[in-house]
Amino acid sequence: MKTNILTAAAVSFLTMTAVAQKDQVKNAEDALEDGNYAEAKAQLKIAEPNLGELNSKWTENFYLYKGKAYMADGTSASGEDLKTAAEAFQKAAEMGSDEANEALASLKNNLIQSAIADQNSQDYAAAADKLYTSYELSKQDTIYLYYAANNMVQAKEYDKAVEYLETLNELDYDGSGKAYTAVNIETGERENLGSQQQMDLMVKTNQYKEPQVEEIPSKKGEIAQLIARIYISQEQYDKAVSAMDKAKATNPDDIGLLQAEANMYYQMGEKDKAREILEEVAAKDPSDPATFNNIGLMYAEINDEEKAIEFYKKALEKDPEFNEARVNMIAAKLSAEKAIIEEMNSLGMSKKDNARYDELDAQRKELYKEVLPDLEKAMEVDPDNMSIIQTAMNLYSNLGNQEKVEELKAKM
């Protein structure tokens, strides 16, 4: 008889617990309707320890209301609260709540917008946390993990950044594709509309114009470069090389990875190795003028001006408007001036020295005449570059062409 009394008491207690929890869940619902998110949170915290006593429908409601309470108005919630809300909506959605599914989609958008706001205010760590939460909610959206890693780099949270970047490598994340963009007529901003179908549809509505399909390059090289850069900054050179080798093992012909590898060795001070890799890149893909320009710069660093000029010319053959290579070529040619001037300054006043001085002066002026067509072209391509104009003025002045000096002075 005693056993029966105890059992009856236990059943009664469990029933009372379930009723109390239902009351707390209902109180949370009422608080949400009043916009009192703090009270809703408080009621749900009381109910949560004994959540197992509720049936599935009440449990589904519990998680739905918890998501709403922590999301609040969608703009004022902290990153941690948004993460809690997302997890709650996820559970409610898994239990069949259509409302939670809709709320989860809205919350994801809020997370992304909040992350963008954090980026704009340079709170990179907060942005990274929100982006990583977005990735956790939808593992197929690896782009959010990529952006989270980049924000961790900006926040100088290098250990976490490497963790995310290494995960991207393990997932064989590429990031390449197509961007379907058009200009929003109202704002004048070019926007990514997601798909060819959506872009065509929005252009037909006359809300958008100038549709464009843009190729998005692979991000593998950038990811490998970021990992290597972090390890190099920590003087963990073996790890930098290992990370690069691992990335190349699955993509040996990826031009972006080869460029990243060259940059890695350059940062490590192994400049000959870096130049060799860049020359391999140029052989595989001779279309990029920047590659030839960078090789030229590396030859200039070891004072091999002849080879440097050779590669600057190759860059300009690929793109005559690539002014960076032209300016570098001008600098390489004018480097010969230093030895001429040093010898001129070392001469005495003898007849022989005077004759040598005149000879050197003539050499210097011939050098200026050789360089001036390049300078004129550089000014044509970049007419607002004051440094180029000033150099041209100096050369014309030394050649005695005061008319050109005055003309360029007027430009300045």
UniProtKB/TrEMBL annotation:
Coiled-coil intervals, chain numbering: none
Q: Where are the TPR repeats?
A: 221-254, 289-322
Q: Tell me one Pfam family matched here.
A: TPR_2
User: What span is annotated as the signal peptide, if there is one?
Assistant: 1-20
Keyword annotations of the record: Repeat, Signal, TPR repeat
Q: Which InterPro entries match?
A: CellSynth/LPSAsmb/PSIAsmb, TPR-like_helical_dom_sf, TPR_2, TPR_rpt
What's the protein name? Tetratricopeptide repeat protein
